[in-house]
Amino acid sequence: MARGSVVYRCWKCRLNTTRGRCDCPGGKYYVVYYVGDKQRWKPVGKNKHEAEALLHQMQSQVYEGTYRELPSITFKEFAESKWLPYITGRVKPLTLRGYRGVIEHYLKPAFGSGPLTDITPDMVREYVETTAKKKRIVSPAHQEQPISPSTVNHSLVILKQMLNHAKQWRYLRDNPALEIQALKVTPVEQDYLNPDEIATLLQHAQEPWKTLFQMEIFTGMRIGELLGLQWEDIDWAHDIIRVRRELFWLRKKEVAAMGEAGQPLWRFSTPKTRNARRAIVIRSRSLKEALELHRLSAPKSPHHLVFCTKNGTPLLPRNVYRKLQTTLTQAGLRTVGLHSLRHTYDALETAAGTHAKIIQAQMGHASITTTLDTYGHVFPAPYLNMGTDLDEVVFGVKDAPAKILLRKQAETRQDKNDDEQNSSDTTSTQPED
Question: Residues 118-128: pLDDT tens digits?
């Protein structure tokens, strides 16, 4: 068997030994092995068992003649010059933008300047633990909020993909992130409007925004799908809306990188997933009437868009968001995001007694698990009738069972938020020890 050993070294306390270890954060185990007469050092981390396993692997490769030198490249160089160019064109532009953001804000600060081959399972494990304790600034209030476990897990998934490609392309022998466990994620209760809030919002909204908000509330379409909707996608005879595309906006630097400087920033794309390409049944008579009136007064668009600017060009999502916030303020309602209107559709359908499998198909979820995990807190009462018209839930009988159910759930949610706020205020006013 080839020569080699596991050594613990700490540059702070000058510890260099094959036995024992210190508590310094910079101390780590190294695998020392020989290729011919040349000595090789590879850092491993705090786990001695991982170091011993790696040493055995290196010795076996040297002995069997299968050992090969790995290319020298940093994590930053690999991400920017190898991996991102490779996935460009293989994923949707919005997905690529998300990958770039995760690499820039999370992965590069943790691994960017070091050699790719120096990344160890301990380093990845430490990254997951420390990132979960950090905070980030969120807009528009520019307040600090803890980084959510789901965000950390998402970055871990991307890191695993990158290192798996590095292994396939012979930049790594193994994927050091492969067996790192994701953080436990506590399901977050999604926010939605209750029937009284929906009616108030629509009373204060002006056209064409009223029809746009009504459309999202009563169909559950994603904002990109809604802004990319064309008139020929609506089947008036059968009360069906066909989701065939979505609209997204590129940044100027993204257009320039594509070699299309001077071209429009917006693009049509296929729906988010295979299941997102779907047919939505219009179960609201008021929505169909609103769409018919909107068709008569809407600006003519060269792209046949249902919702567009006065010039017929696509709407910006941020402008839709701003108009929603303005309308909520004027109506005296609490602040919710555009995606909360999509959640509202699910709450209405669930309260009306619609089967979860139908809701999954209507919302375009990839699996029914997503539907149940995301909206499982909205349970229909056993006495509700299947297929209740959504107009009845919102505008119908004052004391309709579905309407009472959603109102009580909203009150419970508000009481819970008030209790948490009061508890937080009490804690913050207590004197320090």
Answer: 898 989 999 99
